[in-house]
Amino acid sequence: xxxxxxxxxxxxxxxxQHLHDFSQILIGWKGQMECEFSKETSQLTTGTxxxxxxxxxxxxxxxxxxxxxxxxxxAPVDPYIQALEQACNLSFKDTLFQQPEFxxxxxxxxxxxxxxxxxxxxxxxxxxxxxxxxxxxxxxTQLSKGYAADIQALKSxxxxxxxxxxxxxxxxxxxxxxxxxxxxxxxxxxxFYYLCQHEFGLTPQQYVMSRRMQRAQFLxxxxxxxxxxxxxxxxxxxxSSFSRAFKRFFQVTPGNARRNTLQSQVTS
Length: 268
Hints:
By secondary structure, this protein is of the alpha+beta class. The protein folds into two domains: 5-148, Jelly Rolls, CATH 2.60.120; 155-267, Arc Repressor Mutant, subunit A. It contains ten helices and nine strands. It has helices spanning 79-88, 110-119, 129-148, 161-169, 178-184, 189-200, 204-222, 227-233, 239-250, 254-267, and strands at 5-10, 15-18, 23-30, 33-36, 41-44, 48-52, 58-62, 68-74, 101-104. Helix 5 (178-184) packs across helix 6 (189-200).
């Protein structure tokens, strides 16, 4: 791919795995979709964003018939993107696409999301070049603005970890977005994001995943619930998504973890 493009993608209830040599922005427009990276998982709904660096393996699963995304594919070498980086005074590779993450569009941008979708014809890969540049510029500049906001505030604030954990633990079956987490702590999303990285060394969704996995470990060791029940209780689309996440986190499958616990109880 040599030219960056904006397009609509109807996911519906499809599932799959992607890996490509260009970066992407996935913006939820309709319905719901689960997006899973190696260290974190979240649902994309209207206005939520997944930032996908190049060569970042990711799974997706559409959770509703109308699940549809606005996708921005960024060509590795695109003069227009280079000019946009200069205008934003940011290297996208070293900032926005340094690692996979989940964000939310500012509320005032929501009408722009509908406008962007109306300009793109679903299923048509080729879009008027001027419209394409307009839409890419709109979203990339806004995401860059959000990235740069509130960094200086790190020095004067700390997170209320007990309140954060309590909020997450009440929402394990429907994991909260970054925007919901920030709102619960009365912080802006960008401020909350950088505080989380600063204090825990984790993105917000990585921290949420750690709470989900701690609960998963407890339930596997202390209940006989089948994996399908555990997956639903912990907010995963299906048992296979839960199993992948558990194995990445603990380097052992849920089934083996449960068997190891039973064996240790028998021998003790």
